[in-house]
Amino acid sequence: MTQTPTRADFDRYMVPNYAPQQAIPVRGEGSRLWDQAGREYIDFAGGIAVNGLGHCHPVLVKALTEQAGKLWHVSNVYTNEPALKLARSLVERTFADKVFLCSSGAEANEAALKLARRWAHDHFGEHKNRIVSFTQSFHGRTFFTVSVGGQPKYAQGFGPVPGGIVHGEYNNLDSVRDLIDDDTCAVMVEPMQGEGGVLPGDPEFLAGLRALCDAHDALLIFDEVQTGVGRSGTLYAYQQLGVTPDILTSAKSLGGGFPVGAMLASDRVASAFAFGTHGSTYGGNPLASAVALAAVEFIDTPEVLEGVKRRHALFREHLEAINDRHGVFGEIRGMGLLIGAVMSADYEGRAAEILPLAVEEGLMALVAGPNVLRMAPSLVIPEADIAEGMARLERAIARLVAGQ
Ligand SMILES: *Cc1c(COP(=O)(O)O)cnc(C)c1O
């Protein structure tokens, strides 16, 4: 019989790039998780905005297990029914005409950036290769995506960075006017910065980016890896912002916990990915596609999306009530069920101290940078779980305030 693994095995056997919590979750149902010791947690973290339907949602379990008995993988030498259905569903629900399927957010962004460069190369020539992105942005951990991302710590120490990338200031259109020119092939932006602090983009800023891109024949890429698939209260955030990108990337909630990513593009742009220009062994994998199709079809309904807006209001009410009593937050912000509570001046930079206290009280939450407590729960989290999770959060915050 094999021994039950422990947290010590992480340090012994795994590369030290993560520092996971001591508790090891072994089972999940809806918005509740249980660890090896049988302790129960309410999940406001959602696997970092991935478990859009909580844990083991019956609709996703059904899609996965039915496909598991049929066909797992065929490579892109063949196509397959789940991938075709998923691509069609995404096209019918969005601005996009074409879809590239892959397995993660970074991979979707890598595809988007390569597509933009290739499109500009083919239509205008080699010189049109500049990419504008933003400080504090996050686009994934491949070397191209950390270089485009606006947090230098993620690219430092990995050797020469790819050239042609410049960073403006988020929500500051003038900073982009100074950087963009006819050699720019793309502007990559999150409609709301996730990792950078749950910071919503001003609609005028995003509309201004669209206009600048049009003026310079550059492509507008929306990274909706974190905001996508219902999290913002619409299927994709762009649909409520009145700004349509040329390329959009999706992952995280797309598979509800099964690894999958997608890059969506208009026909005008997608044709630059001609036969042989790009690929991925797992892209369009039947298991991943079957689960993602079920997730998209379940989430893109008025019931679920209205429910996200209702729950957003509930989260806000609870957090404001907690703040009335403890004064730890300066601002509550976000869209849908991606919510940030910014620490007040007295607690500046101390968001991460809440997490271990919350775990002790039976609540999983997140941070986004040193100053923002982040919540990205299931889009269908029961209201009773919100209330109970908030009671646990308040106990954790009371202990922070008491200096325990
Ligand atoms: C998480 C995230 C990514 C990276 O996704 P991975 O699946 O970890 O590669 C990219 N962009 C944004 C906005 C994200 O939140």
From TrEMBL:
Organism: Halomonas alkalicola
Domain of life: Bacteria
Pfam families listed in its UniProt record: Aminotran_3 (PF00202)
Family recorded in the similarity comment: Belongs to the class-III pyridoxal-phosphate-dependent aminotransferase family. ArgD subfamily.
Protein name from the UniProt record: Acetylornithine aminotransferase
Keyword Transferase included in the entry's annotation: yes
Catalytic function, reaction form: N(2)-acetyl-L-ornithine + 2-oxoglutarate = N-acetyl-L-glutamate 5-semialdehyde + L-glutamate
Note: May also have succinyldiaminopimelate aminotransferase activity, thus carrying out the corresponding step in lysine biosynthesis.
UniProt EC number: 2.6.1.11
